[in-house]
Amino acid sequence: MNPLLQVREQGQQIWLDNLSRTLLNEGHLARFIAEDGVAGVTTNPAIFYKAIAGGRYYEDDLAALKRQPIGAEARYEQLVIPDVQRACDLLLPLHHESHGNKGYVSLEVSPDLADDAAGTLEAGLRLKAAVDRPNLLIKVPASAAGLKAIEQLIGAGVSVNVTLMFSLAHVDAVAAAYVRGLERLRAAGGDVSSVMSVASLFLSRVDTLVDKQLEELGGEALALRGKAAVATARLAYQHYRARFHGPDFAALQAAGARPQFMLWASTGTKNPDYSDLLYVEPLIGPETVNTLPDATLDALRDHGRVGNTLEQDVGLAQAAMDGLAALSIDMDAVGEKLQADGLHQFEEAFSKLLELTAD
Question: Is 139 an active-site residue?
Fold first, then answer.
């Protein structure tokens, strides 16, 4: 049996971390959905830069947009919003069939708004209206300003993919913002069952940074290489279980609110010494999402080993985190550095993207 379909049987959704007109026009995304059970799509500025810069299907539309008296960002949005709408439409039957639990496509607000809560809220509402699909997720970073915007967007009934999380501190802060947003929505008489949110925890970048610190320490510290990210994810899932399947969420759940699913992001293995499925096989469990780049999707289909693994070895995960702390590796500080780096990388990608659409 296709391992991608076996993952679905374990209660985890596989989303594709890619979108382009090549995937849409040539039927690849439709086949991923029909044959591999792909249940969603995520995008970011780097993905759209690659798509527009290398995709022949954008040339005519971009040339026409450059003849219009509009800005580079408006041209970018007019290029990609139809792609997002088409992906949403492909996934809409799954969205309906799952009563809103599956079938989402993410579109990110401008990375330049990472420190602007009001601007993020305005952009999120505008993009939601422009795409006009029930299965759109507005993607917002887990920055300090982003947390405020997340609460406000959820409170306004907007579904959100929270991105650029790298630590348990980020996980807890984002979940709290989601719950506050649901409380706002309920207090305003809104329908909390209409809102979906996922919390995207980035993994490979955690190991890249922590491994570097471990290698500088040497000796026994080397035994912890390649363990920080999976340990963080497994403990994050325990936090998720306690928060969203415990008494504190019971009233919202009774009103129809959904848990904020954990999403594993940055799941392409960067270290060639590690398994190409390091951030997939150990993290399979119910009410989670794993968003995979094309190469990792192919690897899982080809040789993935599937089981309900996410709650295995939780004690070892905690021991790994304790071991890192004993070595004075501060995982919250790691998370803050990686988030700052990630915001900078997305800003650079967005700047390059706007160069493509500028006059």
Answer: yes
